[in-house]
């Protein structure tokens, strides 16, 4: 019994020291890992922030470029028919969007859906405006119908809503 008590005199303090050292080292290592993760996150943000800002800029330009007014100014040529203009508008808007699809990596899924929806609504507007027109008629008929349709849209057209969503999300970075 005396040997057992003697053994406990050394074992209990040794166990207390061991567990104290273990928990202190564990806390120290956990804190170090947290600091390292935070440093990695900050380094990643230094790299991704300029890319995200560039994506917001490019998507804003996309929305501006595929607006009916700007697309008409860019692609309308004398002598075009309704069919020519409709095809050129649909192609131009689709190509602009496809050219910027990689930007979805840097923005939220919600924002990308808003931009995709705005593009689809713009394509639908062109298709609907050309629907009841003679394909061989002068393109000016389609231009007039498109501009009237744009003027009749909601208080904020889809592409303007997309630009506002881009501004909102970009503003959350700061």
List keywords for this structure.
174 residues, mainly alpha, 6 helices, 0% strand, rod-shaped
Topology diagram in text:
Blueprint: H1 2-65, H2 68-75, H3 82-99, H4 109-131, H5 139-152, H6 158-171
Helix pairs in contact: 1-6, 2-3, 3-4, 3-5, 4-5, 4-6
Characterization of the model:
The protein has 174 residues and is mostly helical. It has one domain (2-171). Helix content is 81%, strand content 0%. The chain is built from 6 helices and no strands. It has helices at 2-65, 68-75, 82-99, 109-131, 139-152, 158-171. The protein starts with a helix and ends with a helix. The relative contact order is 0.12. The mean pLDDT is 92.
Cα-to-Cα separation, first versus last residue: 70 Å
Choose one word for the global shape: rod-shaped
Mean pLDDT: 92
Strand content: under 5%
Major beta-sheet overview: none
- Helix-strand string: HHHHHH
Residues in helices, as a percent range: over 70%
**What structural class should be given to the helix and strand makeup?**
mainly alpha
Total helices: the number is 6
Care to count the β-strands?
0
Q: State the low-pLDDT regions, or none.
A: none
Q: Radius of gyration from the CA trace?
A: 31 Å
Number of structural domains: 1
